[in-house]
């Protein structure tokens, strides 16, 4: 895929049309080991050439560094890109395993001003609540987010890792364009309640970590031994110890399907997520993360792959067999509260 661009999809009933695959930019500043700014910038430019228009960041990624890093790219292409960022989460630099979550109105107002400043734009296209602060009713937080829309600081609203009930309560306050939650061949918990609710409400699904944080590409098999000491994946139960070895064995059916198509494992993982749009009848816009131009090409090319019914059946049992949770503390994920 060098000359053609990817298909498009709508970010829910109320959102804009975007490339049917977005780009996760988190790893360019945070979580996944050493980064190369020049290579990351080349990745952003290549993504845009391929028709990728939805770019995903958050104020928490590198404590604002990711938003600052992306700002020149966004400014150079302001009319071509859809900027998605998030508030709610902060990670104390002296304790990277800790998470502070806030959803109260004064915090949201302070967070949006800080993101607008770092991004150096007049408005954020898609503003997500990153995590739920269970001490604040969701209607109160979404009420403040709706005020930001009316004030022109934000164009569309999104929620990340919410339950179906939380999504319904939020939608009663203001239209929600997208729910961003983990969804991949390894993480399918949202299919039970969140996905049907999103379909009913006209909300798009934006699957994060669609490559299982890289595990589904086969690029690492055990976080303890294959990744640097500060890599976030070393905190995730499914990528470490005995779980990692058990989970690596689950890649075999993906390998079988990849060989049949003559493509990579990661491309099959992405094709599977993308095909959930047809299976569940709603817009699905995955945001695989990469910092490498060659990989963004490979990932974008997955939008042309169609899996057969037999291939989907072969891949079906994988998620139920995964050993270990996707987070060490599941209270902050929708599955921990459904
Ligand atoms: N809402 C939330 O709570 C939340 C949580 C996590 C992530 N996110 C968002 O979702 C985005 C994507 O998720 P993610 O980055 O966690 O996981 P992912 O997209 O499943 O996987 C990213 C990992 O896969 C590697 N990779 C990408 N393409 C590859 C390819 N073609 N071949 C081999 N390896 C490849 C990347 O390495 P390289 O970068 O070195 O290529 C990176 O280590 C993030 O960037 C972030 O914006 C949101």
Automatic annotation (TrEMBL):
Short name of any one Pfam family annotated for the protein: Aldo_ket_red
Keyword Oxidoreductase among UniProt keywords: yes
SUPFAM superfamilies in UniProt: NAD(P)-linked oxidoreductase
EC number assigned by the record: 1.1.1.-
Keywords: Oxidoreductase
Domain of life, source organism: Bacteria
InterPro entries associated with the record: Aldo-Keto_reductase, NAD(P)_OxRdtase_dom_sf, NADP_OxRdtase_dom
Gene Ontology MF terms in the entry: oxidoreductase activity
Domain NADP-dependent oxidoreductase: 22-316
Name this protein carries in UniProt: Aldo/keto reductase
């Amino acid at each position: 895929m060098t000359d053609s661009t990817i298909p498009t999809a709508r970010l829910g009933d109320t959102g804009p049309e975007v490339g049917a695959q977005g780009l996760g930019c988190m790893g360019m500043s945070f979580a996944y080991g050493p980064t190369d700014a020049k290579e990351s910038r080349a990745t952003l430019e290549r993504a845009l050439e391929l028709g990728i228009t939805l770019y995903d960041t958050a104020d928490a990624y590198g404590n604002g560094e990711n938003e600052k890093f992306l700002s020149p790219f966004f400014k150079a292409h302001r009319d071509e890109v859809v900027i998605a960022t998030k508030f709610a989460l902060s990670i104390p630099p002296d304790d990277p395993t800790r998470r502070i979550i806030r959803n109260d109105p004064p915090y949201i107002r302070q967070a949006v001003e800080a993101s607008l400043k770092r991004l150096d734009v007049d408005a954020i296209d898609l503003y997500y609540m990153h995590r739920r602060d269970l001490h604040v009713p969701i209607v109160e937080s979404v009420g403040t987010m709706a005020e930001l829309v009316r004030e022109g600081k934000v164009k569309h609203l999104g929620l990340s890792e919410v339950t179906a009930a939380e999504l319904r309560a939020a939608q009663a306050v203001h239209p929600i364009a997208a729910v961003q939650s983990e969804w991949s061949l390894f993480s399918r918990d949202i299919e039970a309640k969140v996905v049907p609710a999103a379909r009913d409400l006209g909300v798009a699904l934006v699957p994060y970590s669609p490559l299982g944080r890289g595990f589904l590409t086969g690029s690492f098999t055990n976080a303890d031994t294959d990744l640097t000491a500060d890599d976030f994946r070393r905190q995730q139960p499914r990528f470490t110890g005995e779980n990692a070895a058990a989970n690596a064995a689950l890649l075999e059916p993906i390998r079988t399907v990849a060989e049949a198509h003559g493509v990579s494992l990661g491309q099959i993982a992405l094709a599977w997520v993308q095909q959930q749009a047809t299976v569940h009848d709603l817009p699905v816009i995955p945001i695989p993360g990469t910092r490498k131009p060659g990989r963004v090409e490979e990932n974008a090319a997955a939008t042309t792959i169609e899996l057969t019914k037999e291939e989907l059946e072969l891949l079906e049992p994988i998620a139920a067999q995964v050993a270990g949770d996707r987070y060490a503390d599941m209270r902050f994920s929708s599955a921990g509260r459904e």
